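W.,

You were right to be curious about this one. When I first looked at the sequence I had no strong expectations either way, so I just let the prediction run and decided to look at it fresh. Below is the sequence, 258 residues in total, followed by the output.
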Amino acid sequence: MTEILTSRLLSQTETEIVDCPANESVGPRGLKLAIVQSNYIPWKGYFDLINSVDHFILFDDMQYTRRDWRNRNKIKTPLGSVWLTIPVDVKGKYHQRIRETAISDPGWQQKHWKTIVHNYKRAPYFHTYREIFEELYLGSEEKLLSQVNYRFLKGICDLLGIQTRFSWSMEYDLSGDKTERLIHLCKQAGAGEYLSGPSAKGYLDEELFLQEGLRLSYMDYSDYPEYEQLFPPFEHAVSILDLIFNAGPSCTRYLKSF
């Protein structure tokens, strides 16, 4: 099983991000779309969002923000949750976009993988998936943060059986304010529904979506079931790696979209 998954992962990560050009017809206006910045080994809710839509646009034309989820995430350890952070070049680059953000330490992969092995080697399913994640880390030669994030997103989606189509925001025409830009992207992608994270309720103009004939819905991240974690107390807000290594083949039972 591990060899089959590894083979599928390698074939996925070596392909282009888009299966067909962004301006081609991708189906009926009933398509559901989500538009989110790329994150590094994100938590389970991020993958539920991906699995809940037909098409997922990585919005890495947004400005890179420090101390955010773009280049870091948490794992569990005996001393509590700790950050795994990819070092990036930000000095003097206050307005650079996520897709322009370069990695500043070429040895980050080995450091992160060593930390993961140290803290998860006793997890029930770590050795089941060790070969897959070892290749994702030690085989990574990407220089830009966006490409690293995409490598892990596609690799984990493949492992979970998520077949949602990915594309990049830079393949589309970006215009208008926050809500107008999202609506414009929905139209270009041929979507009839936009699925947003709940935090966007504070700034999205819902009336504009109605006027354009687009359905707007919000992801619900509440009431996730707990699973057996190595180091209690339980914490939801950690990388999905924690769920995969602890729950193994049954990890999708702890996600909402399966």
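Here's what jumped out at me. The CA atoms of residues 19 and 176 lie 27 Å apart. And, maybe more interesting for your project: Confidence is low (pLDDT under 50) at residues 1-28.

Coffee later to discuss?

I.
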